[in-house]
Amino acid sequence: MAKHWQGEADAGPRLFIGIRPTADTQVFLDSLVSHCRQQLGQSAERGVRWTSEANRHLTLAFLGETPLQLVPAIEAGILEIADRARPCQARAVALQPFPRSRSKLLAAELLPNPQLDRLHQLCRELMFRLGLEPEGAAYRPHFTLGRNRRGFSRFEPLVLDRVVELNNIALYESRLAPGGSQYHPLLEAELSGTASDHNTNTP
What we know:
- The protein has about 200 residues and is of the alpha+beta class.
- The protein is built from four helices and ten strands; from the N terminus they run ββαββαββαββββα.
- It has a single domain, classed as Cyclic phosphodiesterase (Cyclic Phosphodiesterase, Chain: A, Alpha-Beta Complex), CATH 3.90.1140.
- It has helices at about 25-45, 70-85, 115-130, 195-200; strands at about 5, 15-20, 50, 60-65, 90-100, 105-110, 140-150, 160-165, 170-175, 180-190.
C-alpha cells in the first residue's frame, strides 16, 4: 500500500528518490552516530550537524528542481518500480568521510549489489522517460550521518560488516529550513515485485 503526502504548492520542488531506513537500520545508524561522537570528542563535535532520524535516507536518484507538472508522472513511475522490484539487502562496509577523505560528509557506505544497482537503474530510466537528466557520477549508495564545514579529516574510518534491509521506495522533497534542508516524503511504497520479475533483466 502506497502512502501519499501533500507537498508544497510552489513550482519547481527539489526532488529525489530514495529508500527510508527500517526501524532496525535506524537503531544501527544511531549506534554509528554514538561511535562518531565518542571518537570526535566534544570539541570536534561542536561543528557537526548530525542528520536527524527523519532525514536519513539512501538516495537512489537525484532529480533536482523539477517542473511541478511532472510530479504525478514521477509518482506513477515510482509505483511501477515498487511493483517490479522486490525487497533486498545491502551490506554496510565503511563509516568514513564521503565521498573522499577530506569531504564534509560523514556516511555509512554500502557495498553495491545487483538488486540495489537495478533499483538505481530503474530510477534513471524513469528520469530519461520524463526528459530529466540523471547524474553522471558512479552510484555509491550510503546513509549520510553528519555534516561539518571543516570536514572530518581527523576521523578514523571504521570498517563495518552489517546487512541492512531495503524494503521501500519514496519520493522526497527537499525544503530549506533554518537548521538545514528538511526531506519530506511525498510518496512512499513498499517494494513488492514478484520473484520472476526480480530476476528479469532491466528493459
